[in-house]
């Protein structure tokens, strides 16, 4: 039963981590590429900067999109299975019975 809980946790965590990593990486890298393209083309207004940034972002997505997709999938897979099977999450730990506590010694009346 513990293996099933860990496996389900790993699968669900893998999906969420993959979406978070892939979208986050594409957003941050696209913003950096778009901003640097707008600065390098000396954009004077919003419209020209937006056009330059969009073109640079599309080129970046076509070139590095598959790499980011595969990299995010690998990192999410490794991290989710590592978290689920390490026992770091409380529901993925083996059930341990608490150690038996020895009885208190009898009290002496002085």
Provide structural commentary.
The protein has 110 residues and is an all-alpha fold. It has a domain of 75 residues. The chain contains two helices and no strands. Helix 1 packs antiparallel against helix 2. It is elongated. The N and C termini lie far apart (54 Å). The model has no long low-confidence stretch (mean pLDDT 89).
Order of helices and strands: HH
Biggest β-sheet description: none
Strand percentage, roughly? under 5%
Structural class computed from helices and strand pairing: mainly alpha
Question: Span from first to last CA?
Answer: 54 Å
- Bin the helical content: over 70%
| Mean of pLDDT | 89
Secondary-structure blueprint of this entry?
Layout lengths: L1 H39 L5 H41 L24
Features:
2 helices; 110 residues; mainly alpha
Question: What is the gist of this entry?
Answer:
The chain is mainly alpha-helical and 110 residues long.
């Amino acid at each position: 039963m513990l293996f099933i809980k860990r496996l389900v946790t790993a699968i669900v965590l893998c999906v969420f981590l993959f979406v978070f990593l892939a979208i986050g990486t594409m957003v941050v890298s696209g913003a950096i590429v778009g901003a640097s393209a707008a600065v390098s083309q000396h954009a004077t207004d919003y419209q020209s900067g937006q056009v330059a940034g969009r073109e640079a972002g599309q080129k970046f997505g076509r070139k590095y999109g598959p790499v980011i997709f595969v990299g995010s999938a690998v990192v999410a897979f490794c991290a989710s299975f590592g978290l689920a099977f390490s026992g770091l999450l409380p529901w993925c730990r083996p059930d341990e019975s608490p150690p038996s506590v020895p009885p208190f010694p009898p009290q002496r009346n002085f």
